[in-house]
Specification:
Helix content: 25-40%
Largest sheet: 6 strands, mixed
Number of strands: 6
Number of domains: 1
Oligomer: single chain
Number of helices: 3
Strand order of the largest sheet: 1-2-3-4-5-6
CATH architecture: 2-Layer Sandwich
Radius of gyration: 14 Å
Distance between the termini: 26 Å
Structural class: alpha/beta
Strand content: 35-45%
Length: 127
Amino acid sequence: MSARMMRTYSPCRKSLRNKYRKEIEMEIKINKTGERQITLTLIGRIDTSVTTAAEREIRPLFDYFEQEIVIDCTQLEYISSSGLRILMHIAQQGWINHCELFIKGLQPNVYDVFKTTGFVHLFKFKD
């Protein structure tokens, strides 16, 4: 993986069928941010409607595990149980490959989901 690696992914832009016609958008950015570090930035909402596409985008990352992976959640607004499953899969692959995994920037509502489900004990957190 070169130092200039950058991929952006937007699997889902669709209207909900409700009275608000609110748009859902999720984006994943993967950047090599250091000699042995990759940052995975999650933007928007991770729910059932985007998890299959998100898994497809994240899966190649497992071939290039570096020493440290930072999952940046500063722009993550919502995560469902299927989104947590993706993070669990990343954590499992990281442990298998002896990587350090960090989560940074959890919003209070997303942190509550992590706390309620016990995910706060699975990850290290960075400021």
